[in-house]
Every structure is written in structure tokens, then in C-alpha cells.
Amino acid sequence: MIPVGRRNLQGNHACAYAAIAAGCRFYAGYPITPSSEIAEKMSLELPRVQGVFVQMEDEIASMGAVIGASLGGVKAMTATSGPGFSLKQENLGYAAMVEVPCVIIDVMRGGPSTGMPTRPAQGDLMQARWGTHGDHPIVVVTPASVGEIYTETVRAFDLAERLRTPVIVLYDETVGHLVETVDVPDLSDVTSAQRKWASGPKETFLPYADPGDGVPEMVRPGDGYRCHTTGLTHGENGFPTQRPAEVEEMTRRLLGKLERHRDVIDRFETVRTGDAHIVVVAVGIAARAARRAVVEARAKGIAAGLFRPITLWPFPEAAFREVVAGADAVLVVEMNAGQLALEIERLVGRRGKVARLNRISGEPIGPDEILANIEELARHGHR
Amino acid sequence: MTGETGRVGGDRQIRFSGSGGQGLQLSARILAEAALHDGWSVAHSQGYEPTSRGGLSRSDLVLSRGVIDYPLVTSLDVLVILDDVGATASTSLLTHRSLVIVDAERVTEPPLGPWTVQRLACTATARRLGNERTANVVCLGALLALTPVCTVDSLTAALRDEVSAKLIDLNLEALAAGRALISQTAGVATPAAAPAAP
Amino acid sequence: MDTASANDFDIRDYLRVELLPHFMCPGCGHGIALRALLWAVHDLKLAKDRLAIVSGIGCSGRVGAYIDANTFHVTHGRPLAFATGLALARPDLEVIVITGDGDCLAIGGNHLIHACRRNLHLTCLMFNNEIYGMTGGQVSPTTADDRLTTTTPYGNAEPSFDACALAAAAGASFVGRGMTLQTVALKNLIRDAISHRGFSFVEVISDCTEIFGRKNDLGSSPEMILRQKGSMKPDTYGNVVDRPFRPNAVQTGVLARNDRPEYGDAYRAAVLGAAGAAVAG
């Protein structure tokens, strides 16, 4: 049964409970370390709420089945790690193109390839944004604690439904396997949106018409609309088109959809950035180490702050630009060879120094190491 | 879930280490549940290896009366070592304030340094009780007597929740035997006759 | 009975007529296969609102768009995976997969064998034209020995799959094969496949006149179809496990059938039942 109240909970279990609380009633997956606890928990809990769990023959089929279930009108999710995430990319692109709400959990382990299945990494930050081919919308959230895995998984379903888009919940193995004391909310306190269903006259209904907010109403099989759904570039009527003007309009709406809803998408946390000269940027377990490092730096008289994107993609640009406006150095801390740093360098431009602290050994980056890097920047005049 | 605090004075960092299959994860889970019951916030992480038997295994707890900002151990208050395979892996996390509890039989070379080392007959005691595999619970009893992070009642309740009904009596006996190991030695830890930390 | 149903069957009742003319080449067998499917749907009096067509990529994948139903044109080789999710989530729908020899047996082969094993109530129609037509005529897993394709310019050296033998060996609870020449028999076979409770696999022997036929000097569409007829033996099936590759003579009709438990029913009875009991208890 889904626990409620103050308790010790594993990150991956929190993810499963949150999904069910958000209304997920279909899970398809394939075993992979370090995400398998999510599938195991879903296989136990989903039948108790009359939901369906299915272990598919491979990662590709899991993603396909999730999209199929969501096309049927049921909130659906899958979970995986790097190698499986790679395999899911084609169908993920289909979900983005066809605008199917679904949630994909990627628990990051060491890579590339089989890499280190039981070791933490943050090597999928760019894959989460650009893993599938072609220009496409995608929302990626990056929780840093067990409690936040819960709240962000709920929010992932909310965003997926509201925006008709796949949402990826991306966290490292450390946070996924971490057990922390959290307060699990009562189910009745959890709210998650439901997609807009097709309405109005059936004869003239256009399944991909923009109703004004960039998010078309979704057809539910059996409701009488009998529409066509295709991964081919399609017009408002859902059928394939190659007419340039129509293609351009459709693709612009698809890509612009997220920009129009930044108010619900953007989420971040700042720690003492108000007067910070050195801003640390990090996600996941690295951000929790950075938080302590920033506090310790302050105790040493260094004006350091932390900017932690909770929504990683689209990157919360506006807030970040504001935070770094008064800073003269940014330290990007990540458990990869330098991915988020590329985005930060783009946003900071020539206005300040961007330093990097990377770790690719399969170990988390500790607070002391981050503090040492902050102090090094401070010694070079970035106080 | 996180707050703006550095290492709080009242925080505790505890590591259980040894060989996979010795019940280290179970020990940490039981202590984590007991600590939760007694009002601590808990962060429990583990060395997660592809093999579940025989290799190096570790399980870490950070306990705080406030909010845990960073959930991984950085400096150990207590290090438990139940097998030689875990003897040297954690030395960099020890300070002069650390307490190192080692199994007298299965750890032949405890880490040497300015910390306190307590050699305890956990395995021998467990064997005497009839099941060597309860050495982890014997050790838990000893740990509780040395550093009372939670109440005996909470630990007993957590043990009852985690251990199957047919093994509970044996485990309760092991817990009591572990506590008795410390009262026998009057809770006095043995300073290691050792050179300075590497 | 067939005459009666033929009399009141108007294919236009089941087509998105506004999309016509269709994309298929002159002589392509897929149009006849589509007619047989819609005729079967008509015979079964299936409500179009409850009908879901899931198709993959290739010429076969494009056929679904013409059906006035809930139609889903998904990724290459994956229609069975999508259909599995859809049918599990919505057991009230009648889900029919249209796939091709490349889509189903090459890129989607893993999904086929596991769909057969799982035995979820789905109908899988594999339109077999022995070629990747949409991409210009490359060799497929069912291309016969020695045939010329754009990627076997010296003749095909690979043996070809017998898809029905594969499906039966993997546990499909209904396996059949029909050909476009015998439209009524094909319609009846598809009708029985849809009616069957469980996973049904039907291989439809189609023909690709424009690309495959031309490349191999097989003549016009009627000539190709008559040649198919000559190689067919409408009798009972042999030992499928001993004949994994397509023999020279292939059988039509119902080739394998059993009544083992349908997966959706089994899941709802066993898993949901047990979990419900656990909750109640």
C-alpha cells in the first residue's frame, strides 16, 4: 500500500508512489540497473488500484506500450537507465511529434555504453534534451532528493498532461538509491492535471488545431472522433502533409508550445544568490554537495551562491540570467565531462568566467572539493 | 527537502562495512528506522555492487536533528568493520573523533590512526548463540551501548519489523548479547597503539 | 451467407473516402487485403468507434490511414508494442495491427514472437509482398531464394522466413494464411482471426507488381497472383517446428489454433484479483 506520513523512503520507491498518486495507471518497463526498483514497486502497487503493469520484451517495446496506453487515454510511465534510455529515443520522438503525454524516468549511471551500472553519473543531461532526432519539444526535470523525486514525478505527470508532451524525470543513481526521511502527502492532497479531451462537433473536429494555448485537444478512442495519428509530419487534420507552409506552421506550434508555458515549466532553487559574486550551478546529488560548499564558503567570507535548475530543459534561462547578472564567475559542477557547462557558457557569454568541476570516476563530488574550487576562484579575484 | 545548513554539531555519520551477505544493509536499515522513530532525519546510502555476496559492502547513515543538506558521509563518527575486506576502504573518512568498531575475529588488520578502535567478539558471540549470521545484530547492540543514537525500545521495535517471526527471538538475544559485550568491558574503548594516520 | 454479406457490404462505409485516391501502385495487392479486412469488420458488425488500427512503417503501414476508425501510424517495427499498451489499457477496443514482412519480421521480430507468447487479444495482419517497397525494393526476410532486389543485385542468397511457422512456434493461439486471389476466403480467415480470443496472426500473401514484379520479370499483377496460386496448397499444416523456412509450397487457411488463456483476461483475473484481495485483506 502507498505509505503516507513521515517515513524513510528510497528515491526509486518515492518515484513509483508519486506516479500512482498522480494518477498513473499503466507501466511498461524492462529490467535495468539502477532503476529496477521502480518497476518492481509498480508491479506490486498498480494492480491494487486496478492499473496495469507489464514487463515488455525490450526497452523499445516498453516505450511503445506506454505511448499506446496513453493514446488509449490512460496516464502511463516507464523507467530506465542510460542504455535503455538510448533505445527509447525513437519512440520518445514519436511521443513528442504526436504529442502524447507520458513520463519517462532515467536513473543515470556511469556511461557511455554499458558503463558502470551501479555507479552514479550525470552523463545523460544532453541526451535527455537532444536524444531523439529532429527539432522537438521535451521537458526534463532533475530532482535532487527523495522528497523532490516525489514532488517532481507528480509535476512531471501534470506537465505531460497539460502540455501533451513527454516529460523526463532525470536523476542520478545516488539519489535513486538513497533512502531519506520524507513526509509523504496524503493521496487526496496530490493534484495532477488531466489532458483536455476532444470536444465539439465531430464532423469538423481538427485534432491538431491550436485552440489558443498551443496545446491541441486530445482524441480518446471510443469517443467518436475517429482521427488519424501519425509520426509523419501532419497538418491540423492529423493526416500527413508536405506542404511547406503547413509544415512550418505545425512545427512552429510544436516547438513554441513549451515557450508559451514557461510559467508552469520553469522551476529552480537559489541559495544566497542575491549578492553572489561566484554562482555555482549543479543538479542532483552534486547540487546538494554544492549547497553545503556555498554555505561553508559564506562562512569564510566568500560571496558564493547556488543556482539549481529543477527543470533542466527547457533551461530556466530568465531566472538564471538574473542571478548571474551581478556575478563575475560561475562554477558548473557536474558528474560528467562537461555538458551543462555548454549551456551555461552560452548563457553567460563573455560577461563572466565559467569554470568547470567535473567528475567521471563513478563517485559523487563532495562538498570539500567544491569548496576548494570556490576558494580558488575567490583567490583569483572573483569575490 | 533541504535547508541552508552546513554540518550541524548534533549530526551523526555511521558506516557499516564488511563483506556482502553479512547483513550490513539490514543493520543500517534497522538503525535508520529506529532513528526515525526517535525523531532523527535519516539519509541512508549504500555501496551498491553487482555482486550481492562476498565483495566489499558498505551502508552509510547520516542522522540529523535538523534538515540533512548533504546526504552522504563526509567524516565518520562511527565506522563498523565486520570483515577484512572492509578494513581499509574507509580510512580517509576517519578523524581523531571517530570510533572504529571491528570484529575481533574477522578483522585481522584494523585501520591504524589517531581514532579509537574497539575490538569486539561479534562473530564469536553470534556463533555461541547458534547462528553466526547474527553477528551484525550483535554488533548493532554493541554500537547502541557505545553511542546511544536511539533508544533500545526503538531499535527492538525496528528489529521486529525487519526480521521474520521465526528468527526474532534469536535476533533479540543477539541484540542483548551485543549490549552485554560493552557492559563487560565497561564501555571503555581501547586506544589503538598506532602510528599517525596515513 | 457470403453472398448476402457481399450484397450489403459497401466498402465506402468504412473508408475515409475524402482521402481517395489512395497511394498504392496499380496492381498492388494491399488494396485487396484492405477490402478483405473491412469486409470482415462489416461481417462482425464491429463499431467503427471501438475499432483501433495500429500500423507500422512501409507500404502496409500506410494502409491504415484510409480506414474510418481510430488509426495509429507508429514507428517502424513497433506496432505490436504500441498495440499491446493500447489493448491492455483499453480492453473495450478491438485492436488490429497492420504490418508488413519487413516491419513485422525484421525490425519488429522480437515484438512478434513475444506478442505470440503473451497471447493478448490482438489481431496481427502481416501483408507479405516479399520486399521493402516504400524504400525502393530492398530484400526482406520473406524474399524468396534467388530473387533480385536493389540490395541483392546478384540474387538473394538468404533463406526466407515462414512467418506462420514462426508465429505458431512462438505460441500464437490463432495462425492463418490467406492470399489476395481468394478474397472471400481471406475475409473469412480475418473474420475468424478477429473473433478468436487471444493473439491472432494472419499472413496475407500480397504482391508488389511495380517494384518486385518488375525487377524479377514476373509480369502483370494478375500473372503474379496466378503464380502465387500455383504455389499454394490449401490443406492442413505440417509440422511447423520442423519447417522454419518457407517451403516451395505453402498452405493457406487456419494453420494453428488453440484456446489457451488470453493474457488480458488472465492478468485481470489473477493479478488484479490477487491485488484486490490483498487490499481487502
* Mean model confidence by pLDDT of chain C: 91
Count the helices of chain C. How many? 11
Named CATH architecture of chain B: 3-Layer(aba) Sandwich
Spans where pLDDT lies below 50 across 5 or more residues of chain C: none
Please give a structural write-up:
The complex is a heterotrimer of chains A (383), B (198) and C (281). Chain A is α/β, with parallel strands linked by helices. Chain A folds into 2 domains: 5-189, Rossmann fold (3-Layer(aba) Sandwich); 269-379, 3-Layer(aba) Sandwich (Rossmann fold). Chain A has helices at residues 11-21, 36-45, 59-71, 82-98, 125-130, 146-163, 173-177, 244-259, 262-265, 284-299, 317-324, 340-348, 367-379; strands spanning 5-10, 26-29, 52-55, 76-80, 102-110, 116-120, 139-141, 166-172, 179-184, 228-230, 268-271, 278-281, 304-309, 311-313, 329-334, 353-358. Chain A is globular. With 198 residues, chain B is an alpha/beta fold. Chain B has a single domain (12-184), classed as Pyruvate-ferredoxin Oxidoreductase, domain 3, CATH 3.40.920.10. Helices cover 31% and strands 20% of the residues of chain B. Chain B is built from 5 helices and 7 strands. Chain B has a 7-stranded mixed β-sheet with strand order 2-3-1-4-5-6-7, with helices on one face. In chain B, helix 1 packs across helix 4 and helix 2 packs across helix 3 (135-146). Chain B is globular, with a radius of gyration of 16 Å. Chain C has a single domain, classed as Rossmann fold. Chain C has a 7-stranded mixed β-sheet with strand order 2-1-3-4-8-7-11, with helices on both faces. In chain C, strands 5-6 form a two-stranded antiparallel sheet. A two-stranded parallel sheet of chain C has the order 9-10. In chain C, helix 2 packs across helix 8 and helix 5 crosses helix 6 (109-118). Chain C is globular and about 70 Å long. The termini of chain C are far apart. Classes of the chains: A alpha/beta (383), B alpha/beta (198), C alpha/beta (281). Strand 9 (179-184) of chain A pairs antiparallel with strand 2 of chain B.
